[in-house]
Design a protein that fits this description.
The complex is a heterodimer of chains A (211) and B (306). Chain A is globular and about 50 Å long. In chain A, helix 1 packs across helix 2 and helix 6 crosses helix 9. In chain A, 66% of the residues lie in helices and 0% in strands. Chain A contains nine helices and no strands. Chain A starts with 19 loop residues before the first helix and ends with a helix. The longest helix of chain A has 25 residues. Chain B has 306 residues and is an alpha+beta fold. Chain B has three domains: 75 residues, no CATH class; 79 residues, no CATH class; 110 residues, Immunoglobulin-like (Sandwich), CATH 2.60.40.3350. Helices cover 45% and strands 21% of the residues of chain B. Chain B has seven helices and nine strands, in the order αααααααβββββββββ. A five-stranded mixed β-sheet of chain B has the order 2-9-8-4-5, with no helix packed on it. A four-stranded mixed β-sheet of chain B has the order 1-3-7-6, with no helix packed on it. The chains are: A mainly alpha (211), B alpha+beta (306). Chains A and B meet through helix 2, helix 4, helix 5, helix 6 and helix 8 of A and helix 1, helix 2, helix 3, helix 4 and helix 7 of B.
Chain lengths: 211, 306
C-alpha cells in the first residue's frame, strides 16, 4: 500500500520534511476528531490521487503527496488552519498544485487531453492486449486477487463479492438486500464496499509487484 | 458517470471535483459509480457514446487501466465461484421474471409441446391411464426443472455472449499473426476497426534502408511492436516523430515491455491517420524517477496505399 505521502518524492519540495510531532498533529487535524487519523489520511490521499488522475496529470501520486506536504507545512508554520474544513482546504491546495503543474513548461505538464495522441488513440487496445485470458500476467493477477481476498475478514470478503457480483439489472435489488443484511444504509454500504475494493486493488498491485 | 467520462460542462466538472475531495458522501458515490462503470465495461454492458468516451477519455490513465484489469479478475472470480456454487443473494426466479416476456413465453410453449409429445409417448407405450398421468406429471416436473435450469443457463449464456461480443469488438484490433517479416502488413482484417500490424526490429548500427510499412487505405489503427534489445527500464514512452524529427505526432502512455516469442517488445496502438507517405521514426525513452533517457530510435518509411 502506498502512503508515504508527507515524505514526498516530489522534487520541488523535497527539502522539507515534517517532524514526527508535526506529522501527528497533521493527522489529528485532518481527522478532525474522527478517531481514525491514519485511515483518514490514506482516504484523503486516495481522493487526491483520483482527483489528479481525473485531470490527466502524470504522476498523480506525487502531486497528491505534494498537496499533503504543503498542507502539513502550512499547519506547522501557522499552528492552525481555521479558514476551511480540513478536506476543503486540501482541495484548495490541490487546485494550486494542479495549476502549477499546468504552468510548468515541460512535457509532463501538458494535460493528456492536449497531447496529440488522445483524440483518436485507443488505449483500450493496450488494455486488451493485457487482458488476454491466458496471459501469464492475467493468471498472476488472478492468483494475487485470491490471496488478497483470503487475507480479508470473512465479512468483508462476503460483502465485496456480493456487492460487485451480478448483472446490472439485478444489482440494485441485490444491494438493497445486502444493506439490510449488514444493517447498513445504502450509502454506508457503498462507502464500505469502496473502501474494501480500494484496499483489495492496492493489495493486488503490491502482490503483483512482489512476484 | 458523466463526470467520469468527462461529459459534464466545465463548471459542473469543477464543482464535482471539489466535492469529490471535500465531501465524504460525494466521494463515496463517485467511487461507487467508478467501480460500477468499470465493471459495466468489463461485462460488456457499455455501448454507444458511453463506450466511446470510456475508451477515449477514461482509459487514458494507467491507474484506470489497472482498475479495468482488476475488474476483469474480479469478474473471472465471480464466474468461477458461480460455477461451483451460485451466489444466493437474488433468487433465480427474480432473475427469470426480469427476462423479456417473449422469451419466457416461448420457453413455456416449448415446454407444453414437449410435454404433449411426452404424454403421447406414454399413452402409446402403456395404455394404463394412471400410469400415463403419472408419467405426464413426472415429465412435467422434469420439464419444469429443465426449464428453470435452461432459463438460468440461457441467462448465463446471454451474459457470456454479450461479454464475449464486447470483448471481440475490443480485441479485433489486436492481431495475433505477427510472425511475418518486419515492415510488412501482417494482417488487415475487415473487422469493425481495421488494423495493420507491424513488427519493427531494434535498430542496428549498419547502414540499412529503413523498412517500409505499407498501410492499406482502409486501415484505422496501427498496431506496432518494437523489439527491444535490452529492457533496462520498467517503463518506456514512445513518440512518433515527423521526418524532420521536431514535431511529435503521437505519444504513447507509459508502457511496460512485454515478453513474447520475439523477445521483449513494446506494444503500441495508434491511429493510422497519424502516418502519411514519408519518413518517420519512433523515438523510445526509458522512464525512471521522472527522468527520461533516450533508448532507441526506429526509423521507417510509411507508404499509404490509395
Amino acid at each position: 500500500m502506498r502512503g508515504g505521502g508527507v515524505i514526498s518524492r516530489f522534487r520541488h519540495k523535497q527539502d522539507w520534511l515534517p517532524s514526527a510531532e508535526t506529522f501527528q498533529r497533521f493527522l489529528a487535524w485532518l481527522d478532525a476528531g474522527g478517531g481514525t487519523p491514519g485511515e483518514r489520511y490514506l482516504e484523503m490521499r486516495r481522493r487526491l490521487v483520483d482527483y489528479f488522475d481525473r485531470k490527466h496529470c502524470l504522476g498523480a501520486d506525487d502531486l497528491a503527496d505534494e498537496t499533503l506536504n504543503r498542507v502539513a507545512r502550512r499547519l506547522e508554520e501557522e499552528g492552525a488552519i481555521n479558514a476551511s474544513a480540513p478536506a476543503q482546504y486540501c482541495y484548495i491546495v490541490a487546485r494550486f498544485v494542479f495549476f502549477e503543474y499546468l504552468r510548468r513548461g515541460d512535457r509532463s505538464a501538458v494535460p493528456y487531453d492536449e497531447t496529440p495522441s488522445t483524440e483518436t488513440t485507443s488505449p483500450v487496445l493496450q488494455v486488451a492486449d493485457e487482458r488476454e485470458p491466458e496471459s501469464e500476467e492475467g493468471t498472476r493477477r488472478f492468483k494475487c486477487l485470491e490471496q488478497c481476498l483470503d487475507q480479508l475478514p470473512a465479512a468483508d470478503r462476503g460483502l465485496i463479492l456480493a456487492y460487485y457480483s451480478g448483472e446490472r439489472s439485478t444489482k440494485i435489488e441485490q444491494r438493497r438486500e445486502l444493506a439490510a443484511r449488514f444493517n447498513l444504509t445504502p450509502n454506508a454500504l457503498a462507502i464500505r464496499a469502496c473502501r474494501i475494493r480500494n484496499n483489495l486493488e492496492e493489495c493486488v498491485s503490491a502482490c503483483m509487484g512482489k512476484e | 458517470m458523466q463526470h467520469l467520462l468527462g461529459l459534464l460542462p466545465e463548471a459542473d466538472q469543477e464543482r464535482l471535483d471539489s466535492l469529490s475531495v471535500s465531501d465524504d458522501t460525494v466521494a463515496a458515490r463517485l467511487c461507487d459509480a467508478e467501480n460500477d462503470l468499470v465493471d459495466a465495461y468489463v461485462r460488456g454492458d457499455l455501448a454507444g457514446e458511453d463506450l466511446d468516451r470510456f475508451m477515449t477519455h477514461y482509459l487514458t490513465s494507467e491507474r484506470r487501466r489497472r482498475k479495468v484489469l482488476f475488474a476483469e479478475s474480479l469478474l473471472k472470480l465471480e464466474k468461477e465461484r458461480k460455477r461451483v456454487t451460485p451466489l444466493p443473494l437474488v433468487p433465480p426466479r427474480a432473475a427469470v421474471t426480469k427476462r423479456p416476456a417473449g422469451r419466457t413465453r416461448w420457453i413455456a410453449w416449448a415446454a407444453v409441446i414437449v410435454v404433449s409429445v411426452a404424454a403421447g409417448t406414454v399413452v402409446f407405450d402403456d395404455l394404463h391411464v394412471r400410469q400415463s398421468l403419472s408419467g405426464i406429471t413426472a415429465a412435467l416436473r422434469a420439464l419444469e426443472k429443465t426449464e428453470r435450469e435452461s432459463t438460468d443457463e440461457l441467462k448465463i449464456q446471454e451474459a457470456r455472449t454479450s461479454a464475449l461480443l464486447a470483448q471481440v469488438s475490443r480485441l479485433e484490433g489486436v492481431v495475433t499473426n505477427l510472425e511475418s517479416a518486419s515492415g510488412t502488413v501482417v494482417n488487415a482484417k475487415p473487422l469493425l476497426v481495421r488494423v495493420a500490424s507491424f513488427l519493427l526490429s531494434a535498430p542496428t548500427r549498419g547502414i540499412e534502408a529503413p523498412p517500409v510499412l505499407t498501410v492499406p487505405s482502409d486501415v484505422e489503427q496501427l498496431s506496432v511492436r518494437l523489439k527491444l534489445e535490452e529492457t533496462e527500464f520498467a517503463r518506456y514512452r514512445v513518440s512518433l516523430k515527423s521526418p524532420a524529427g521536431q514535431t511529435v505526432l503521437w505519444q504513447s502512455p507509459r508502457l511496460a515491455p512485454e515478453r513474447g516469442q520475439h523477445g521483449a517488445v513494446l506494444k503500441l496502438n495508434l491511429p493510422a491517420e497519424r502516418v502519411k507517405n514519408g519518413a518517420y521514426r519512433f523515438d523510445v525513452v526509458g522512464l525512471e524517477q521522472g527522468q527520461e533517457e533516450p533508448v532507441a530510435s526506429y526509423a521507417f518509411n510509411a507508404h499509404r496505399e490509395e
